[in-house]
Amino acid sequence: xxKRLIAGLLAxxxxxxxxxxxxxxxxxxxxxxxxxxxxxDAATTGDTAAADNTQAPADNTAAGDNTEIESxxxxxxxASATPHAEILEEAKSxxxxxxxxxxxxxxxxxxQPNLVVESGEFDANYFQHIPYLDQFNIDNSTHLVNAGGIxxxxxxxxxxxxxxxxxxxxxxxxxxxxxxxxxxxxxxLLQDNGIITLKDGVGLEATVTDIAENPNDIxxxxxxxxxxxxxxxxxxxxxxNGNYALEAGFSVGNDSVAYEQSDxxxxxxxxxxxxxxxxxxxxxxxxxxxxxLKSDEITDFINNTYDGAVIPFK
Length: 314
Fold this sequence. Notes:
By secondary structure, this protein is an alpha/beta fold. The chain has twelve helices and 13 strands. The protein has helices at residues 2-38, 46-66, 81-97, 112-118, 130-140, 180-192, 225-228, 242-247, 252-255, 265-269, 284-293, 296-305; strands at residues 73-79, 100-106, 124-129, 144-152, 156-159, 173-177, 197-198, 211-213, 219-223, 237-240, 258-259, 272-277, 311-312. Helix 3 links the parallel strand 1 and strand 2 (100-106).
């Protein structure tokens, strides 16, 4: 009799315990759901903690999906080959991390890159300095503006058939760019080195007609900028823009017989810029482009790549 009574009591206790366990399990599910949804009240029971841990992989997957870079669009830039397009190529991966696709097209002249930006075919160009940009606007009734200075390239005098300026003789030829601002820059550099003397006050508008003194009777050959380096084997010296000197295989530090110093007014005046059509200079795309080109990463790339022929502008 006692054995039956004890067995009955044990069965009753086990039944109550089982019902109580089910009740805790059922009430913990909405609590766990509420806690996950609200982001508050971390699990206070083992069941709730288990529910949160179960959801963690799903949350991590979602977080992983959110790291995918959202595309912001394409930035099209017209550029000279060296160093401009090379610098832009280095900037591509940085811009890609920000969601921008940078498309670079190389041009071999100084006219089309401005025309395609004026027409809206391209967003920007990178090949010119401000004096050239200003003069181009005057001559062509275009509406291009500076969106940011990136670098400058010291102008240099490079050897042709001669390697020493002191050996210049009557009739020797020096080739210079023929566009207004670059020709003036070349002539000013020749003046700084005692080869010619210009009329007072001509400054950045100087042309060969402004040569006041030419003691060695040097002939100045004016050529389209891209052509100057190609006659180096035919003339005594060539005066080159930094990018064309690089393309010709010249190093400013190692090959030039004279060049603009980094603190010279000319070097600072002729900073190369990102040019855009007026009204676009503060757009999100152009701001992103300029910021990357002025970043520490691009500054280091320029300094480590061009041996002083290209100097970052800060």
